[in-house]
Amino acid sequence: MTVVLWITLGMLGLAALLLLARATMGPTMLDRTVALDVLIAVMICGVGVEAARHDHTFTLPILLVLTLLGFVGSVSIARFTRGSDDIEAEKAER
Question: What is the pTM of this model?
Answer without folding.
Answer: 0.78
